[in-house]
């Protein structure tokens, strides 16, 4: 068993999708270890997305992720990072397969509903940032 960090972004919370999305992870076999509705401030957003600091979309990304409450979760399961990323789907919802969260609920990369850690190292770093 391992852990991953998943966060429903402000667009998902505004559209009242928390329940539907959490249900998908539970159905897959994940256990919810921790969860909270919270507002991200700019400092936390910049630390969370530090790897994208030099990208042209960084400013928009920080504005978006701080634009309203997010629902942050620690999930536990087998190959948690990979299994969560599979349920989430590709970064760009246009390329995300139907049946995935981004494939089913989103149409543009700048508001793609949900975040999931991309490695065990990222998961550990992000869980520490959001839950300690
Ligand atoms: P996330 O970190 O949010 O789970 O998404 P990801 O791993 O699938 O994608 P990543 O490469 O880490 O990108 C982080 C977020 O930046 C936005 N993005 N915009 N305009 C663009 O070309 C572009 N590329 C990425 C997306 O909202 C993506 O989720
Ligand atoms: Mg990422």
TrEMBL record:
It catalyses: a 2'-deoxyribonucleoside 5'-diphosphate + ATP = a 2'-deoxyribonucleoside 5'-triphosphate + ADP; a ribonucleoside 5'-diphosphate + ATP = a ribonucleoside 5'-triphosphate + ADP. It is an enzyme of class 2 (transferase). Pfam families: NDK (PF00334). Residues 1-132 form the Nucleoside diphosphate kinase-like domain. It is found in: Cytoplasm. Its cofactor is Mg(2+). The active site is at residue 115. SUPFAM superfamilies: Nucleoside diphosphate kinase, NDK. This is Nucleoside diphosphate kinase. The gene is ndk.
């Amino acid at each position: 068993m391992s852990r991953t960090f998943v966060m429903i972004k402000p667009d998902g919370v505004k559209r009242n999708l928390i329940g539907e999305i959490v249900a998908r992870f539970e159905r897959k076999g994940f256990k919810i270890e921790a969860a909270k509705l919270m507002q991200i401030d700019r400092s936390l957003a910049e630390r969370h997305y530090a790897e994208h600091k030099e990208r042209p979309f960084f400013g928009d990304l920080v504005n978006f992720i701080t634009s309203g409450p997010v629902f942050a979760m620690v999930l536990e399961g087998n190959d948690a990072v990979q299994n969560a990323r599979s349920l989430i789907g590709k970064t760009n919802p246009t390329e995300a397969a139907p049946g995935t969260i981004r494939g089913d609920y989103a149409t543009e990369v700048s508001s793609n509903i949900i975040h999931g850690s991309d490695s065990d190292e990222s998961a550990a770093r992000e869980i520490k940032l959001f839950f300690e």
